[in-house]
Amino acid sequence: MRLDIDKMQLAMARKCMGVNYLLKKADLPRGTYNNVISGKKVRVETIGKIAKGLGVDVTEIIEAVSYTHLRAHETAANL
Q: What is the pTM of this model?
């Protein structure tokens, strides 16, 4: 699962929320936020905290997963 930075920033804009306020609401350190923004891998719990801080469902801020991509992995696992 990957966080979609654009979706997260859009949710922040909708709520007129700055980074510092999000960090406080999500109980996240600045370093973790920097990892998220730079595209580094983050824990599922971190994405959950960000969603909770934004007051949105996790599905609203994660990248869409293509069904075709999932089917390819499923087929490869069955070989």
A: 0.78
